Every structure is written in structure tokens, then in C-alpha cells.
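G., the chain you wanted modeled:
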Amino acid sequence: MANYCYNSIQIVGDNKILKKLIKKLERYEETKFFNEFGDLILDKKFDPEEKRDGYEYGTRWFDFDLDLDEKWISKDNLISLNISGDSAWSPPEKLIEEICKKYKVSAEMFYEEGGNDFMGETKFFWKDNVLQKEEECYSYREGMYKLSDNWHENIYEDIEDGLYSLIHNGDETYFYDQLLNLFEDYVSEKDRDAILKEYINYTKKDLNVIINHDYRRNDNTITDVLVVYKTMLKVINQIIKDHDTNK
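Predicted structure as C-alpha cells:
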């Protein structure tokens, strides 16, 4: 079974051209192979007997939804076709590139696949009548930091999970490992320091909420707020020391 790669694609072009493209895209269910689908969109003749790479257009299938945004109009009177959905293992990047070439449209695509640890953005645009390509591709975590608005929310969830484990299981190592994500090279010192500062400034009330969690609290839970706070600081100071040593 393929890993699902999520895609969000925006194609910008003339209204009539995009409506013509939509009619082709809506015929997806008529095809048996993704190469056949790509050929249909590009007005190529498909030969089922021809030996071809199953990922010639970037993926083997694409379960997508279409939305023509006629309310959004660019300064050049162009509108936007939005395509979103899951593909197999990798994004349909080559197909989008070929669509841009054939229909003389521009496109931006965002994709992510946590299982295979990647996330990226690709932009296709025209300059001097030549299609240009700009691409950024990262590991999943680095992509979350550089391309997504959810990085801060996710990093807090990870660290909180480590803090719960520290308080209810006495697991300092797991808390350390979650904090370690703040010390990746791509994380700015400003972001790292701001997040660490929030935890250092946790109040008695903040810690009591975690200590008294209805489902997590057990016989091993550290109930003394002062002990919890000192242990937190010990782990935070240790990871800062280790990071400074390894610079």
C-alpha cells in the first residue's frame, strides 16, 4: 500500500483555459493508469502496451478535489483553480509542470508526506516566455518550520507530551528528547529561546493542571510542584549545556 502524500495545488490562468483543463481533469475515473490520465490531459495518445515508468508524471494515482475560484482575480485578470488531495508516495509534480507548459498557466504546489519524511513547495512561472521552476524540499520537521503555520503548535504539543511523561512517569529522557527538536540547525535562536522561556516561566497553576490531569495522574505522578519545577529546569539546563558544548 502506498503512503499518502498530501497536495495543495493552485493553478493560475485564463478563465476559459482553466475551464477547458477542468473538463480534462474531471475524466480521471475514465482512465485506468495515471500515465493514461496524464496523456489525456496533455492530448497525447496512450498506448497501454508501451513500457513506461509508472511514476512518469510523479505518482501512480491522485485522489483529488477541484475548486475553481472565480472570485479571486489577479492583477492580470487571471483566476485560480485549486486542486487538493492525496497521491501515492510522491506529488504529481511532473504532471503539473507539463500542464503549465501545455496550457501556458502558472502553478504553486505544496506537498507533505510524514511517513517518508518530506515536505516541500514547487512554483512554476513564466519569465521571458520560458517556464521557470523553483523548488524547496525539506525533511518533514524542517518543512513544518519553514513552510507551515503549524510548527509552533506542533512543537508545543511534542514538548508538552514530554513534560507529561516527566511528571507522570518520571521520564526525564523523553522530555529531553522532545526539547531536542528545538535545537535543530534550522530553528532560529529567537524561536528556541522564546519557547524555552515560556517553560522556564511556568507558574504553580500551570504545573498543577498537568499534575492533576484526570487520565494521566497515577501512583508515580510527581505531585510536589517545586520538585517538578526543579526537575524541568535541570533538564532544560542540561540540554542547553549539551548544545553549547557541541557547537
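The two ends are 42 Å apart (CA to CA).

Shout if anything looks off.
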